[in-house]
Design brief:
Helix content is 29%, strand content 21%. It is built from 13 helices and 19 strands.
């Protein structure tokens, strides 16, 4: 289970009070809805509920085992007199009461409403709808403990608040092995811009590795955990492996331009470009248009010694990712450090490998951006750069974006572990 994932726990009283199915007030089942709800009980002796036909399980399924007519009138009166909305309810035979959840729809203080209801003689008990957290820790993915990059970015804590659900990422790269157990169901679109045929069966190493860092499934007892395990992926093959099993891949202006154009049509939230090359006017124009449409672009900075190959990371509105271990030589908030050394990720044929390079820093950055965009889909690149820069953590000579602290800053909450984490690189 995702560490300390929020669930709606209602204690013993609420367990007895829970209904058999959803009502028209779906907020009853969510932590968000619970924040504006109260619970109260009204006296209903078990003997008053006699006369119902059928076995209890049938009565529950058909939702016929409810308040007596007199209790129903009381609940309706309470809702009207105290300006409440009825949500759901159930009799608690062991306490001889009927339990009902009410929503406070206006902006009144819940404490004030509770004080009013406590003074009402018809009410046995009234309280806030409390929210509880499970206490299970860690993932059940067997290689999760080997992911030092995820630990460095506090990904596990970040997943308490976001997992990338509802966010789409276009990976413009070599072919992705969509049949990999950790990527099954993640790749919703696959296109090949390298040649006329289908992408290589089983994918290619680089694209599969980038997808695994971003989107590997969590808690399915297989492999690793992605930075944003609930994102959806568009696999846009614009690069080809240098040799069949090589990590290295190459792309052309033409194949990249075709992929960028289709990416704009797909309207992803994020585009990942784990590649670098010379300045390219056509691609520069396409990136201008893509960014103007609100799509966040993440690119890898070139490795050391690759002068003249700074594009597309050199584009002024692209988030440029470099190794967290490098000394930052740029004052730009668009240049970000992220883990890039010995990163465990997916490779074709249901395999895994430790890989290094700024391509992996870009993938880690794209994953963190997806977490932020789950919480606020309207974020622009300037705001994302600001949040990630301001929450970058420094330790042991490294400077890395931090998923958990970035989410804290974005949501104005405090939930990250405060103890320092020792991570070996």
């Amino acid at each position: 289970m995702i560490r300390r994932a929020l669930v709606l726990g209602l204690a013993l009283l609420l367990v007895a009070c829970a209904g058999a199915g959803p009502t028209k007030h779906e907020a009853a089942a969510t932590a968000e809805g619970a924040e504006r709800q109260i619970l109260l009980t009204v006296r209903q002796p078990d003997t008053l509920a006699l006369g119902l036909t059928g076995v209890p399980s049938q009565r529950y399924a058909q939702r016929r085992y409810g308040p007596t007519p007199s209790v129903e009138r009381i609940l309706t009166q309470l809702a009207r007199e105290h300006r409440l909305e009825r949500v759901d309810g159930w009799p608690i035979a062991s306490l001889s009461v009927y339990c009902e959840a009410f929503a406070v729809a206006d902006d009144r203080s819940l404490d004030a409403v509770i004080v009013e209801l406590k003074a009402d003689s018809r009410v046995e008990l009234v309280q806030r709808m409390n929210v509880f957290e499970t206490q299970a820790e860690g993932y059940d993915d067997p290689y999760a403990d080997l992911q030092s990059s995820a630990a460095q970015m506090d990904v596990e804590d970040a997943h308490r608040l976001a997992t990338g659900r509802g966010v789409s990422i276009a990976i413009i790269d070599s072919a992705i092995d969509a049949s990999h157990p950790d990527l099954h169901g993640r790749v919703r679109v696959a296109r090949n811009f390298v040649d006329a045929g289908p992408a290589p069966r089983g994918g290619e190493v680089h694209g599969t590795a980038i997808a695994g860092i971003i989107a590997s499934a969590a808690n399915h007892r297989v492999g690793i955990v992605g930075v944003a395990p609930d994102v959806t992926i568009a696999s846009l093959r614009a690069c080809w492996a240098v040799t069949r099993d090589s990590v290295a891949a190459r792309c052309s202006s033409f194949s990249l331009a075709r992929a960028l154009e289709v990416a704009m049509e797909l309207k992803p939230n994020v585009v990942n470009l784990s590649l670098a090359g010379p300045d390219d006017p056509l691609l520069d124009q396409l990136l201008d248009e893509m960014i103007a449409r609100g799509i966040i672009v993440v690119a890898a900075q070139p490795e050391h010694g690759q002068k003249g190959h700074e594009f597309p990371a050199s584009h002024p509105r692209v988030l440029a990712a470099h190794s967290a271990a490098d000394v930052l030589d740029s004052a730009s908030p668009y240049v970000l450090g992220a883990p890039s050394t010995d990163v465990l990720t997916t490779t074709p044929g249901a395999q895994y490998a430790f890989l290094s390079g700024n391509s992996l820093a870009a993938a880690n950055t794209s994953g963190v951006v997806a977490l932020l965009m789950e919480r606020d889909p309207h974020l622009d690149v300037a705001r994302i750069a600001e949040v990630l820069t301001d929450t970058t953590t420094h330790a042991g000579g490294s400077a890395s974006i931090n998923a958990c602290r970035a989410l804290e800053r974005l949501t104005d909450t405090t939930f990250c572990a405060r103890e320092a984490k020792l991570v070996r690189f």
